Amino acid sequence: MTRVAVSVAEYEGAGPFLASGLRSGDRYELSDGHAFYCAPRGADVARAILVGAQVLGTDPAVTEAGIDAGYSFGPRHLRAPDIAIGNVPDRPGWIAGAPSLAVEYAGSGQDEEKLQEKIADLLGAGTRWLWVVRLLGPRRVEIHEADRPIRTLGPGEALLAPGALKNPVLVEELYDRAASDRATLRNLLQREGYESLAQVRDEAREEGRAEGRALSVLKVLTKRGIEVPSDVQARILACRDLALLDGWLERAIEAKSLADVMG
């Protein structure tokens, strides 16, 4: 996001503005009372934020996420990271504290000095990880953490935020639609208890085999003139244990009563 200082004199010490004086939708952020105008985003940044928010927001460990969420960690501070993970409550108003993970996108027109001030503010307020996605030049992500040197990773390398995210995030998943879509599908499957699409397919095949065996058991019993009560039919159709179904089927071929099959 491009940030330009509002047209007021530079202040020494705290500035005159308060977070309570800003409303949702105002295009300003505050750092120690100094106001900064947040200009509209370029197409590259706007697109990439949506791509990154998709993969981060669907991570199985994430319960709260937001775009441009406003954090007020003191009366003269108001910061809105491009993407925030953690501490995004479902209520109106500014959020006290800071997100666990914040992501900023730097494209054309980025005011680097203002970006560094924002990074320092958020880390100082308690953000554990702040990732800066660089869209100019070679695509890369800078990792900022309090009291640690800045690290830079490129495509193919994995970003980690233990406690905030379950899964590693490849650098390209934060700006490349296809990479983000693949990771998002994995995340959504994991939220439903699956580790991969292959597992879903395998379970579907197993489901089909079990259903076929169950129908075969009922068909054989019917041909042998053995009445099967509705509750037993439901039990047979609900069974997904292939070994058990095979045993029922084998006994049904020679059975004279339902008890000979079900035991």
Provide a descriptive summary of the structure in words.
This protein is an alpha+beta fold and 263 residues long. Residues 1-11 have low confidence and may be disordered. Helix 1 runs parallel beside helix 3. The N and C termini lie far apart (70 Å). It is built from seven helices and 13 strands. The longest helix is centred in the last third of the chain and has 27 residues, at 197-223. A hairpin with a 6-residue loop joins strand 10 and strand 11. The strands form four sheets. The protein has a six-stranded mixed sheet, sandwiched between helices. Strands 1-3-2 form a three-stranded antiparallel sheet, with helices on one face. A two-stranded parallel ribbon has the order 5-7. It folds into two domains: 3-191, tt1808, chain A (Alpha-Beta Complex), CATH 3.90.1570; 197-262, no CATH class. It has helices at residues 43-57, 112-125, 177-191, 197-223, 230-238, 242-254, 258-262; strands at 3-5, 28-31, 34-38, 65-67, 71-72, 83-85, 95-96, 101-106, 129-134, 140-144, 151-153, 158-159, 169-170.
